[in-house]
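Researcher: Go.
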Amino acid sequence: MDKFIRLWILSILLLFSGLCVIYAGMKNPEIIGFLLALNVLNVYGELLILRICCLVCKYQYKTYWEKYGLVLLIYSFSMMFIEASANLVVLPFQVFQILIVTVITLIILVRWHFSNQIKFLAILIFGVFGVFRVYESASISSPGIVERMLVDMAFLVALNIVFAILFYSNMQIENRIREGYMKDMVEKAVDIVFYYTLKPYPAFLFVSPSVEQIVGYKQVDFYKNPNLYLEITHEEDRKIIEQAFSAKLGDGTKNFVRWQRKDGEFIYLEYYNNPIVENGKIVAIGGILRDITDRKMAEKDMLEVKKEKQLFQSYISHELRTPITYIMGYTEMLQKDCWESETERSNAVNLINSKAMFLKTLVDDLFQLSKMESNQFAFEFIQISVKELFDILDKTYENDVCKAGIGYNSIIDARVTVSAIEVLADVKRIEQVYVNILQNAVKYAPESETIKFECQIDDNHENILFKITDMGNGISKEDQLKIFEPFYRSESARARDSGGSGIGLSLCRLIMRSHNGDIYVNSKKGYGSEFVFSLPIYLEG
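Model: Structure:
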């Protein structure tokens, strides 16, 4: 509305300047310059009124009006230069003024959204005053000039009244639009918008409906209990939120707090608070609470990924350093021929070979793990009977277990054999899973104990379960949650220095997930372990 006020003041100044020109022209009526000045002031004063009429109804004002007025001004000066008659000088301005008054009237009738009373008053004052100034600009020296100046003054007063009414009415319309828009925006806001008063007593005067969706509590819960915001805040964050909702709040504070939803779950909220100040004191708090739980969880995941990356680098460094140290040490001793017998030399060569094979296996596993985690690993799935797959796993590695001095027993569910059930599987990858679990069982199983390999159908007749059971020391509950993570090795594994890299079981999990299957362990410390990997039964059609 600043523009409205500027146009208002400027138009009154121009029209009042016209009165001054009339007064000055009374003493020298024969000078045509006074008449031209009066017409110019009237025209541009009317143009300002036209701009005001366009402004209050948001109608675009055309700049060609000023351009045409400039053309008239050039024309008038040309007429004065050739000493033309007064009528030739002022007639175009009078026609132009009548056109402006007509356009003003049309805009009021067609474009304005004010009441009919305001529109009638505006047409009466703008129209009559415009026509009167056209008549008045025809001559300064005609009789009754004083009376006409008094009428001019009255019109200027009336013009100011109309401007004031327009200003007030337009402000009311804009306020209603703004309030309606703000109310609609707040009511539909995704974030929690609130207004919390501190005086005369603490209370929520407004909480947006979105609070129920975010926190689970209704608006009325906050209205009834002004301290609810504090009660549902995590105890570690209560000092922060107390300050945010107090008279000690700094301007434009920003922070994070945890609120407990009605269902008991904690969520993260980012709040933007602004104090409402009266007489130098904070009397209320207005602000927004935004649910940033997903963002905080993403940040947490990023930190965990960063931590896992650091652990990855640490594990790789450790796993590579040990075999490389062995290889370098024994190679140097071979070069210097430090062995007393051929047996020692042969043992050293075998050790170097085993460490080199370990490094090769580690590199291969890392490559395979990277490919699987980035979904770049290609599987070769075939349709195969469960009995055939079981025989491949069972017969191929039975002798390896027996050579280790450990018993081996395999059992297949009769329903599998009779029904000729089939699965979709990459046989080499399933064999990799089986071998990894079996080797671990051999490592940790006591001598003379028996490892059992079973094949069953689950209770829902949807999956085939392959179970490998050993009677070793078992796995603690804490380790059971982590053994399928990359590079994790239990305390017992590290204590026995079994040589594992901690990658095998994580590869097994990725392989089984790629088969839409699963892998898990059932174990109790001191009572052995049962590893289970499952494949969904293949159903044609």
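Model: The longest strand covers residues 266-278.
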